[in-house]
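ugh ok fine here u go
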Amino acid sequence: MPVVPPKIIRAVTRCPEPLNGPAISKDLACWNWALAAFNANAHPIGELYDYVNGWQPNLPAWVPGPVIPVLQGIRADYAGFPGQAYSEPKRVAMERNSRAMLSALCGIYGLPVSADETDVEVGLKFEDWSPQKPREIQQNHGERLDSLGIGYEHMWLRFKKKTTVETWVNRGALLLRHQEQDHVHEKVVRIFVSQVLANHIAMLGDLLRVRKAAPMFIHPAVRQPWDPDSAADRCTWCRASFSMLTRRHHCRACGHIFCDDCTSQTEMVASPSTRPGSTATNNTVERVCDTCFTGNT
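structure:
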């Protein structure tokens, strides 16, 4: 199972947002992206929530053995709360069990949970059945407030504690943005994972190619002109404004202007771009932007 390459982490967290990915011809769900990268054979997580809430007597047969005691523990821990009116102990139990549930789900779908901080988190917004929205709950679920159990509203991937990549039913594509919108802090649990699925990385690459396919990011193989400093007052990639502290740097592959962070890579460039009047030497190691960086040396 792969680790997300640093190149992709950099590109994702510095990409201008919001960025909509290419259309995906699959039935999308937030959990299927975050946990399974749209694996068509992924089992729906609703079956597991039915079990831990006590609404189904047995776990599905497909649940791996090591996770069974965890889910049984969540069910036992939460058993005293669904029949009670909303209370602070019930909210704490919801949060505690939502975290345990998210950890179990990551294990089931093959994402290794890390005790240490990593670049990637799986986020879950759990359903907090507070008295502030009983009418909405009753309209959506047709149930009494005190009968509802532990559940989830949304799941996503987050990179560098900054950038989320997510989707939801009927959206038809991935969405990249640099903040977790519409998430109340106490309703969110996040877990660091050390690795993701290969298809997660492939789909992140597809998402970033949408940005790179813009006309200004199509780089011919021939030598490119060097953009004059006056042509840009902000970084071409992350859009940071230039100042005395944030200086301009030219990518030697495309000739566009970027900030230092977005041109921190070096690699072999066949025909480097140079400032007017300078003579370029072919096939030299040069400073390049994150967009042009291929990882080849």
